[in-house]
Backbone:
């Protein structure tokens, strides 16, 4: 194995670790920090892949990731939770070990699902596809297990990170137009969801989404 | 025949070295903790003084103490000496190493623990039973995590003998193993739990609400207590030695090259000192957890170990 492959594997392992850490994290502030770290590792991964394969457009997408996912979005989220006054909120998660075991099962499943595809791919990053799928599924699991609005949104954003990583590992990234489109989509979605938070809180007096399960008004 | 004598001598030297060095290691950790907490420590040799004092006292036994209570300290000490002779610290040419692999090593630790718990319950005091239950709670969760930690290097080297793992890992080309990093994190968490350190247990407390290890040995005195304390020190040293052997095995002697042994001993002392400092830092920056958070902590350790193994198996890294 060449050094760049080893480094890419290391980045993939770090991303998986961060995904699990997000799953277990109770504090919203730390969750945002973890999300920023995930973006940073993703950026490093893109740069390594770009350098080792000579794909210059990956540098731009790395720059985009750095700007949006490491700086802008965590800043927006940070300001949001200060404005919403939930900076020190701690979510009561029940049974983290069980969630973790489900997460391990998801990792095994996604490795198995990704195996045939990665055998077909010719990229040097092909073995990390399984981890990319695992990150998507783990973020999904996080969205399922969380009850508050902000962690669910962070789960959604982490899922997008996983998709981006999957694109990098199978085809050295998507075309620039698609990438820009997704990045702006996520950014706009983030802004709209930010406004949503305020609306939700105004209507229900809390950000707990269990209030939204009832569809009828009394 | 000469070969056997050589490996036997190297075995003897290593075991004696670890057993004699263990109280010093404990003293070093305590000293580092004292420095970090702005105290002047008790001195590096304090554990030796304590052992000396305890060995010269008369032992007191409860009236209803059975054979188990009296035999347990010797069994614990014996187990730890055996563990110390399985783990390579200076060289990998050990006479005992074919006899027991890493899985047997976990079993040896378990044997010592079973007897310490039995002895704690033997006299029938409330604290003893309480400590035994807590110890078993922690053990039942840390043991699978420890086994999982061992499986990652085992899969990399394709051997379960510690000596061949060290041989293979110390003399390979440089390669980044993310799986080993995961295993190392998990191992540190298990080390903290198994050796009754903060955040799982506080070795310096006698507060009945929180103590685990101290509750087990409340009834012991004199030479029995000394043996248990010594066994605890050896256990800590052996755990650090396992960590060094698995994750930083450089500088260990291959085969029996007697000239290399002083260098290996120097490397070992430096590595153990670093490990002790790291342990002291970890213990200073973290607070003790509630006991019911311990399952979560050890669940995380298990998770890390399994992740390491999965990454090794599926990513080949």
Residues:
């Amino acid at each position: 194995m060449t050094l760049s492959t080893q480094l890419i594997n290391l980045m993939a392992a770090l991303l998986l670790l961060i995904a699990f850490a997000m799953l277990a994290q109770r504090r919203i502030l730390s969750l945002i920090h973890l999300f920023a770290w995930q973006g940073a590792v993703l950026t490093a991964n893109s740069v390594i892949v770009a350098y080792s394969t000579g794909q210059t457009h990956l540098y731009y997408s790395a720059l985009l990731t750095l700007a949006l996912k490491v700086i802008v979005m965590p800043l927006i989220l940070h300001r949001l939770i200060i404005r919403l006054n939930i900076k020190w909120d701690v979510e009561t998660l029940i049974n983290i070990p069980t969630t973790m075991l489900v997460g391990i099962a998801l990792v095994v499943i996604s490795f198995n699902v990704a195996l045939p595809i990665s055998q077909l791919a010719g990229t040097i990053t092909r073995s990390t596809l399984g981890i990319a799928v695992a990150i998507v599924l783990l973020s999904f699991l996080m969205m399922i297990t969380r009850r508050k609005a902000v962690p669910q949104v962070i789960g959604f954003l982490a899922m997008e990170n996983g998709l981006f990583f999957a694109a990098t590992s199978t085809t050295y990234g998507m075309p620039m137009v698609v990438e820009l489109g997704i990045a702006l989509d996520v950014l706009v979605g983030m802004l709209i969801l930010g406004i949503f938070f305020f609306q939700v809180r105004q209507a229900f007096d809390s950000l707990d989404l269990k209030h939204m399960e009832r569809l009828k008004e009394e | 025949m000469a070969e056997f004598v050589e490996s036997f001598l190297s075995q003897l030297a290593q075991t004696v070295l670890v057993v004699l060095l263990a109280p010093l290691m404990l003293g070093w950790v305590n000293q580092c903790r004292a420095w970090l907490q702005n105290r002047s420590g008790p001195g590096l040799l304090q554990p030796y003084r304590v052992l000396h004092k305890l060995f010269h006292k008369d032992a007191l036994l409860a009236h209803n103490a059975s054979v188990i209570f009296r035999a347990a300290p010797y069994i614990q000490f014996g187990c730890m000496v055996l563990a110390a002779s399985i783990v390579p610290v200076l060289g990998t040419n050990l006479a005992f190493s074919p006899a027991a692999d890493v899985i047997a090593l976990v079993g040896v630790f378990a044997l010592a623990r079973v007897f310490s718990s039995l002895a704690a319950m033997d006299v029938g005091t409330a604290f003893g039973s309480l400590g035994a239950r807590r110890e078993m709670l922690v053990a039942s969760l840390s043991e699978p995590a420890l086994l999982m930690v061992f499986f990652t290097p085992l899969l990399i080297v394709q051997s379960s003998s510690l000596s061949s793992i060290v041989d293979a890992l110390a003399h390979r080309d440089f390669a980044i193993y993310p799986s080993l990093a995961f295993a190392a994190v998990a191992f540190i968490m298990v080390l903290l739990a198994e050796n009754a350190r903060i955040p799982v247990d506080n070795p310096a407390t006698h507060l009945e609400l929180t103590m685990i290890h101290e509750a087990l040995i409340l009834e012991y005195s004199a030479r029995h207590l000394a043996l248990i304390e010594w066994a605890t020190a050896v256990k800590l040293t052996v755990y650090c030695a396992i960590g060094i052997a698995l994750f930083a095995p450089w500088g260990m002697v291959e085969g029996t090259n007697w000239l290399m042994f002083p260098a290996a001993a120097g490397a070992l002392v430096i590595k153990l000192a670093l490990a002790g400092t790291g342990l002291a830092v970890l213990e200073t920056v973290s607070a003790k957890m509630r006991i019911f958070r311990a399952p979560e902590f050890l669940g995380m350790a298990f998770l890390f170990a399994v992740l390491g193994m999965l990454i090794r198996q599926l990513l080949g890294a």
